[in-house]
Amino acid sequence: MSLEITLLPPGQGSQRVTVAGRLDTHTYEDLDEALAPLMTPQLHSLVLDLSQLEYISSAGIRSIFKARKTLAAHGGKVLVVNPQPQIQKVFDVVKAVPLNDIFGSTAEADAYLDAMQRKVLQGDDSD
Amino acid sequence: MLIRLIVPGEYARVEDLNASLEAVLNRHGMARAIRDDVRLIVEELASNAIDYGGEPAAGTAQHELSVDISIEGDLLHLEFRDTGAPFDPLSAPEPDLDAEIQDRAIGGLGVYLIRQLAHRITYQRIDASNVLRVSLRIPQPESEP
After folding, report:
1. CB contact under 8 A, A58 and B113
2. What region does A95 belong to: left with phi over 0, alpha with psi -120 to 50, or beta?
3. Closest partner residue to A94 among B14, B43, B112, by Cβ?
4. Sheet holding B129-137: strands in order across?
């Protein structure tokens, strides 16, 4: 089984990507390649929808770390949606993503992004 | 013994190895959670052996990887052998999990994961092979049949 990556239409400073199948030694480079062009300074939130991801190994965690590091350099974040039990277990063991950045559903992640967006607009007097 | 599989140390064969193990464990009624643990352990150890095992012995193209699995009561024993350079994964330093993301090392997580999943784990260098023995507790079904 391989990995299926789908890029959804970008939002305001956010981008949702669904990752399905197995994210491991055999497939992590596909994810790295798919994410690389998205990693612009304008991207504040990369939302990884893991509902259909069945398995992750340390190679997959490294891809997520790479994305987190790249985005953190300009204050951006990786948010994770609906990790399945094996993925949640691996995330917990290696503390792959802060718990506050893991959401149960895309609706929850969207609500969080909307709230952030409102905060930015309210706090921004320059335009 | 439930199964012993031996494959050449190359990435494409690791997937075959895991597919076979998965089928055997499934047939023996092992739950998804423990099948996933076995897959992870084999993938991590095989990747390490392929990436860091050094040159294979003269006259061979690749290192050899072998996996033995047996079940004893509520324990699953997995023995992983590779013919790579001597390497005791249990001597690897633990990663700092609480560092800020910018300061976190990107490697070292595979061995750490195995150590956390294992009920018991031992390493021995036997002849020209690294031998890692990992025992996993088989979760007892509570509600499922």
Report:
1. yes
2. left
3. B112
4. B3-8, B64-72, B75-82, B129-137, B120-126
**CA–CA dist B25, B27 (Å, integer):** 5
Gap from B109 CA to chain A (nearest CA, Å): 6
Amino acid letter, B98:
D
The reported pTM is 0.92
Give the chain B residue whose CA is nearest to the CA of A96: B97
Using 50, 70 and 90 to split pLDDT, how confident is the model at B65? very high
CA atoms of B89 and B109, how far apart (whole Å): 11
**Does the distance separating the beta carbons of A86 and B112 come in below 8 Å?**
no
Length of chain B: 145
Let me know if A34 is exposed, middle or buried by CB neighbors in 10 A (0-12, 13-18, 19+): middle
Residue B123: is its pLDDT beyond 60? yes
Condensed to tens digits (0 to 9), the pLDDT of residues A6-61 reads 999 988 899 999 999 999 999 999 999 999 999 999 999 999 999 999 999 999 99
For residue A55, give the nearest of B36, B101, B107 by CB distance.
B36
Q: Which residues of chain B are within 8 Å of residue A68 when distances are taken between CB atoms?
A: 101
- Using a CB-CB cut-off of 8 Å, the residues of chain B touching A91 are none
* Contact: B102, A62; criterion CB under 8 Å: no
Is B46 in contact with B14 (CB distance < 8 Å)?
A: yes
